[in-house]
Design brief:
Layout: E1 3-7, H1 16-31, E2 35-38, H2 44-55, E3 60-65, H3 66-69, E4 80-84, H4 87-97, E5 100-103, H5 108-122, E6 130-133, H6 140-151, H7 157-160, E7 163-166, H8 169-177
Parallel strand pairs: 1-2, 1-5, 2-3, 3-4, 5-6, 6-7
Length: 193
Amino acid sequence: MKNVAVFCGSSNGASNVYIDSAKKLGKELAKRNITLVYGGASVGVMGAVADAVLKEGGQVIGIMPSFLEQREISHQRLSELIVVDSMHERKAKMAELADGFVALPGGPGTLEEFFEIFTWAQLGLHQKPCGLLNINHYFDPLVELFNHMTKEQFLQEKYRSMALVDTEPNRLLEKFNVYEPPAIKTYMNEKQT
């Protein structure tokens, strides 16, 4: 695994634990010589994870739409900043560059990014691991929702298990190393074949 995309908030969150854990992930990525691919901002959890990778001598690629870069929130010390035209292009570029995806706590944008990439995995558009770094139990309600989707038969268990969850960056990245994607989603059943 050479590059990991991280989806996360541009806010600090209500507790220092979010920034501290983002820094811990950044240090772990640098230690493993994994390049961070992220949204390119210098603020919030996004800035914290990028700063930690850079502080440890690691590589960081930021991908930012031009309308956000013009608001002067882009990180100025990245290994590389790629400016794109839209949010759609940002996500496509992150998906292209990354070998795996981690969501840290964030708002609707973070969840939207995670769900899109998770859905792409379910449809077989990529076979890369998707993980939730469950800092401060932030993703507990989402994990419960996945369980509810499975129970109500809107999500098969083999796809539910694609959402790798851990509270520690090193353990989550170890899960990435042994991840094996399930078979591609199909609507055919055995009776129809």
